[in-house]
Design brief:
Strand content of chain A: 25-35%
Shape of chain A: globular
Function (chain A): Non-catalytic component of the proteasome.
Distance between the termini of chain A: 21 Å
Number of helices of chain B: 6
Keywords (chain A): Cytoplasm, Nucleus, Proteasome
Family (chain A): Belongs to the peptidase T1B family.
CATH class of chain B: Alpha Beta
Largest interface: A-B, 7 and 11 residues
Largest sheet of chain A: 8 strands, antiparallel
CATH topology of chain A: Glutamine Phosphoribosylpyrophosphate, subunit 1, domain 1
Oligomer: heterodimer
CATH superfamily of chain B: Aminohydrolase, N-terminal nucleophile (Ntn) domain
CATH topology of chain B: Glutamine Phosphoribosylpyrophosphate, subunit 1, domain 1
CATH architecture of chain B: 4-Layer Sandwich
CATH architecture of chain A: 4-Layer Sandwich
Pfam families (chain A): Proteasome (PF00227)
Order of helices and strands of chain A: EEEEEEEHHEEEEHHHEEEH
Radius of gyration of chain B: 19 Å
Number of domains of chain A: 1
CATH class of chain A: Alpha Beta
Helix content of chain B: 25-40%
Protein name (chain A): Proteasome subunit beta
Chain lengths: 250, 254
């Protein structure tokens, strides 16, 4: 769970409660949270992956929630952080896409534009000290090229060949960097991402083993079914502990 | 007070002695001066067409549209003042998005029609506003009621129709619409029929140039609102014009 706190305060005070003499505070703590999202840009498209759990604090509250959202025929989001804020983001982005549809002027929002739209909104909210508690990965395919960008709750926005959020930032990103090649294919990258999801499932307690992979290529968006990871718990170091004698399991 | 009028026609807040609100009737007159708009609700969808009189040869084709999409599943075509119509279309879009944000489902056709009619009605209640100088044909699809066609008038009424016509040529258009069999008519056929009606009621002597705009929500468009593809419209219009030429040739022979 994202442990970031902008101010000290108990959960009871978190939601828009004016305490006598204290400045008004808004939601400063996420409640139901999703963990990591991974992304890799490939020669023929982009792949993103995430698990399907939403935790209520440390409780594994929801175990088959999709954390992906298709925005347009060539753009999807993968979102970690507060799940209700993610739903709010979906509503917002969908409304924007509807406005584009009814304008009927032949123009569509590119993945880059969608990323910018989200970044503007996230930055706006952070400036109101009322952020949407998410890290969003935008994956798209435009003009023959993959687009892989990120925006976080501060409105920080950038693009990269490999991206990871949440716990994946620590455990997944080095693996992603090692595995990435400019000529890596979508099919190959899916395997890599699945392996990293497995690593995350072993080590990140806010993760489950039901995962979703999605790709955006010239053929469009393909959001895969939720699938169960094949895991192996019989490794010697898992069973006996890596450093026998010091009571550690790693 | 000038010599014309009886003093009961300046405000919507005053009835005439025989119970009429003249400003609303004048608003309807504004529509009767405008290009004809017609719509049909048929077997596999709803199709609307409007004759857009072109005010100058130098206008870029497609500018100042009279057919507007308001949501993924609904669209309006406007007869009357273009700018008033745009206001109605914008309001319709707002209603669609607000319904969606509250109920997380697309607004049903009858709700949208009622809300639009309420909006128009408010403009008949106060002395400091004028009623809308336009009528909107609203085509929509929802899972419960299927394809629907409504006509929203400046008086604030809206009715659901199988076939409706407003504007300059509405009388002739209505007569032509009554001959159609809405139960068996498909949208593809309706496009041709509507083009034919618009071409027939178009008054060549008064407005030479006009564009034909069409909008549909149908099975073919996967229940999405769409401007009817331009090639279909052009084809239908060309066929209608050719048929009309043939007819007039025959008339000449007689």
């Amino acid at each position: 769970m994202s442990g970031l706190r902008l101010t000290e305060g108990s959960r009871g005070l978190a939601a828009s409660v004016a305490v006598e003499g204290a400045p008004l505070t808004r939601t400063q703590v996420p409640y139901v949270t999703g963990s990591s999202v991974l992304g890799m840009k490939c020669a023929d498209g982009v792949v993103i992956a995430c698990d399907t759990m939403a935790s209520y604090g440390t409780l594994a509250r929801f175990k088959s929630l999709s954390r992906m959202h298709q925005v347009s025929p060539n753009c999807i989001l993968g979102v970690g952080g507060d799940y209700s804020d993610f739903q709010q983001l979906q509503t917002m982005v969908d409304a924007e896409m509807t406005a584009q549809y009814v304008a009927n002027d032949g123009l569509t929002l590119s993945p880059k534009a969608i990323h910018s739209f989200l970044a503007r909104h996230m930055y706006h909210r952070r400036c109101k000290v009322d952020p949407l508690w998410n890290t969003v990965i935008v994956a798209g395919f435009d003009k023959g090229e993959g687009v892989l960008s990120l925006v976080d709750l501060f409105g920080t926005a950038f693009s990269s060949d490999v991206l990871a959020t949440g716990f994946g930032l620590h455990l997944g990103l080095p693996l992603l960097r090692n595995a990435h090649r400019p000529d890596i294919t979508v099919a190959e990258a899916k395997g890599v991402l699945e392996d990293i999801l497995k690593v995350l499932f072993y080590r990140d307690a806010r993760t489950n083993d039901v995962v979703q992979l999605a790709s955006v290529t010239a053929a469009g968006v393909e959001i895969g079914k939720m699938t169960k990871l094949k895991t192996e718990w019989g490794y010697k170091s898992f069973v006996e502990g890596a450093r026998v004698g010091d009571d550690s399991s790693w | 007070m000038t010599s014309i009028g009886t003093g009961y026609d300046l405000s919507t807040t005053t009835y005439s002695p025989d119970g009429r609100v003249f400003q609303i009737e004048y608003a309807q007159k504004a529509i009767e001066n405008s290009g004809t708009a017609i719509g049909v609700s048929c077997k596999d969808g709803v199709v609307m067409a409007v004759e857009k009189v072109v005010v100058s040869k130098m206008l870029v084709p497609g500018t100042m549209r009279r057919a507007h999409l308001v949501d993924h599943h609904s669209g309006v075509v406007i007869s009357g003042l273009i700018s008033d119509g745009r206001q109605l279309a914008t309001r319709a879009r707002d209603e669609c998005s607000s319904y969606k944000s509250v109920y997380d489902s697309p607004i049903p056709g009858h709700v949208l029609a009622e809300r639009l009619a309420n909006f128009a009605h408010v403009y008949t209640l106060y002395a400091y506003v004028r009623p809308f100088g336009c009528a909107a044909l609203l085509g929509a699809h929802d899972d419960i009621n299927g394809y629907q066609l409504y006509l929203v008038e400046p008086s604030g009424v809206s009715y659901r129709y199988f076939g409706a016509a407003v504007g300059k040529g509405k009388q002739a258009a209505k007569t032509a619409l009554e001959k159609l069999d809405f139960k068996t008519l498909t949208c593809r056929e309706a496009v041709k029929e509507l083009a034919k009606i618009i071409v027939d009621v178009h008054d060549e002597t008064k407005d030479k140039l006009y564009e034909l705009e069409m909008c549909w929500v149908c099975e073919e468009s996967k229940n999405k609102s769409q401007l009817v593809p331009q090639d279909l419209v052009d084809e239908a219009r060309k066929a209608a014009e050719a048929a009309q030429d043939d007819d007039s040739d025959m008339d000449d022979d007689e």
